[in-house]
Amino acid sequence: MHKGTAFTQEERASLGLEGLLPTAVETLDRQVERVLGHLGAKPNDIERFIYLQELSNSNQTLFYATVMSDPARFVPIVYDPTIAEACLTYGHIYRRPQGMYLNRHMKGRFEEVLRNWPVKEVRFICVSSGGRILGLGDIGANGAPIPIGKLQLYTACAGVPPEGLLPIHLDIGTTNAALRADALYTGLREEPPEPDAVDAIVDAFMKAANAVFPGVCVHFEDWKGDDAIRLLERYRDRYLVYNDDIQGTASVALAGIVTALQIKGAALADQRILFAGAGSAGTGIADMIVEAMRGEGLSEGEARARIALFDIGGLIEKGRKDLNASQKPFAHDWKPTEDLTDAVKQIRPTILIGVSTVGGLFTEAVVRTMARTCERPVIFPLSNPTEKAECTPEQAYEWTGGKALVACGVPFPDVTLDGRTFHPGQANNFYIFPAIGLAVQATKPKRIDDAMFIEAARATADQVSQADRDKGMLFPRQNNILETERTTATRVAESIFERGLATVKRLTDIRAFIESLSYTPGY
Ligand SMILES: O=C([O-])CC(=O)C(=O)O
Ligand SMILES: [Mg+2]
Description:
Blueprint: H1 9-14, H2 28-41, H3 45-58, H4 60-69, H5 71-78, H6 82-88, H7 90-93, E1 100-103, H8 110-114, E2 124-128, H9 145-158, E3 165-171, H10 177-180, H11 195-212, E4 217-220, H12 225-235, E5 241-243, H13 244-264, E6 273-276, H14 280-294, H15 300-305, E7 307-311, E8 314-315, H16 340-347, E9 351-354, H17 364-373, E10 378-381, H18 393-399, E11 405-408, E12 415-417, E13 420-422, E14 425-426, H19 433-443, H20 450-462, H21 466-470, H22 481-498, H23 510-517
Parallel strand pairs: 1-3, 2-3, 2-4, 4-5, 6-7, 6-9, 9-10, 10-11, 11-14
Antiparallel strand pairs: 7-8, 12-13
């Protein structure tokens, strides 16, 4: 146990630590105070990131006490957007291993290798191939910080106990030739294999993970879009698994839409929704909106007709020959165009969602055109990190005369326009996946389904206070994230029990049980 100066006199005596620590015996709060001082003295967030990761290795309790002392400040440092820089430079800033590093050449031995992990009761694995990290594309082994950071948010945002969390980078190779040529790159210097071979590798991994850690929940994160969609379909009925970029992102986008429509007093079934970007996030959000619209009485066909996708090849319409199976259901009879403004003119969207990774794609023309036919445009430039956002909140407010309801994937500062202050929301999946984790831990369902994510979306939306809605805020405030996610987890757990999907006995007080599972940093 690494408590540092918090070891008591008795512990120091019995553990042979006398003389090995400074004289003062300190509380956790005092230690946090010192850490905050160190962080304040660092020149930038990437240095804070490195410092905090070192702290998580040397004193996990102090790490979580620090991050949880001010989540609104520290989540953007341990996670997006700072983690993007950490990923880009991972081979260079690497200090020591965290979690596990598996590669495709271990395929026949995954079980044996996973048994090297010192903890036997692993409840959640977050696994990435690095094939599509944030909006940064394929960066292979440089994506290793992502599963680490995501699992840290399980604890920091929802109180999921950290001992049962295992981050894994599963190295299948990378298409990124520049990284393969970097002397300090830490991964395999190989091209990834064909999809069939990827499936065989991941099949072996899933089998081994479930054999070594029975009942483990596997969270897929930042795989290449095609792999993400295919692997989720392959495993969703066979294992306890979910894909955060498909289901978590969809859920948080839906949460923002639900709040925005409550503010507007409009029904989801009446919206016209245009996506810029048609990868796994875009089609994942679109599919979840279809489910939610069906819940409001539309047929599947009617719901799909209200959604249009636009990608690098232009507007997705019936004549396009390059569409994959996830995109085809959204190909309607539109006039072909490669111009987003033109697409906005045709579709007259009430909701515009950016998942394109093209910074600045929502130009003044796009936004003003939208505002011409929509009184309160809902605009979500979700791409990350910051410079990939399709527009800034400031631009969206300015070009719509302050009418837009805006949420981005990364945090942006408040905007003051004509004496009014606007608070752009942060539509990040960290509102969702930690709460799903907590609900899964409490109910132990056999499978995870979309209905759980829809419930998480509604629970998140319901927690935005009226005062905050009046300011155009679409998400609950982050300083209270732990309480928010416990409430979300309770709602999701209730629905899991109600639908008969739990494998544990129904609890009388679900909230109290969720709280009793919850980790609080302390010695
Ligand atoms: O990590 C985030 O902030 C959102 C996300 O899952 C991604 O961009 O892949
Ligand atoms: Mg992701």
